[in-house]
Amino acid sequence: MVSPLRALILDFGEVLTGPQPRQIIEGMASMARLPVEEFLSRYWRHRKAYDCGLTGPEYWSRVVEGNEDVPPSLLSELIEMDALSWSDYRETVWDIAAEFRARGNRVAMLSNGVADIICRVRAERRLNELFDAVIVSCEIGQCKPEPEIYRMCINRLGVPADVTLFVDDRVENLAAAENVGLRTFHFTGDQSVDALRTTLDLPVEPFSNTTNGA
Question: Could you give the CA distance from residue 212 to residue 89 in angstroms, rounded to a whole number?
């Protein structure tokens, strides 16, 4: 018999938020004077270093490397647009976290994230009140799918891995979570919300949650 879930770990990007809006991606590519696909290739190629503590100016200098006409002020503009691109909060998942926690369970946010974005999120959302643990890669110098970041999250929650559900949109992160004993749920967008509620034994119709605001 499978034990009931007692803890929930949620990824941030594309789980607690929606995907990056295409128009913002195109805007950043235009500012960087790069074709969109080349911009995206550079954006993700250097992202792990940014997630693990590289500063915003250092990261964006790598993204626009070779473009001699980029003014220094552009780096701060790109940092701001990047943060904006990850601020479309998926309220239905925040509601799930609040309702699951209200039943006496433990909830964490575990994100590969950068300081420039997590500072904005902390200003807009009372993360320490909404989650029992908040672990962001840039703050600890480790990224998913490295096993230690999952173990740290499990330890902070104080709940065994086999009764904890990890929710992420990336298959490689889910596989690593399973290797440390976590149960997993592959989140693929809004169509996954009802299935996640069912997995957590929550009613499909959520309660009204007013705790997410600043």
Answer: 10
* Structural domain range at position 194: 7-18+88-199
Number of independent structural domains in the chain: 2
Q: State the pLDDT confidence band at 214, using cuts at 50, 70 and 90.
A: very low
Give CA–CA dist 58/41, Å, rounded. 17
Instruction: CATH number of the domain at 194, please.
Output: 3.40.50.1000
Amino acid at 185: F
pLDDT at residue 147 greater than cutoff 90: yes
Question: Could you give the CA distance from residue 17 to residue 154 in angstroms, rounded to a whole number?
Answer: 22
Q: What pTM, to 2 d.p., does this model score?
A: 0.92
Domain-embedded: residue 167: yes
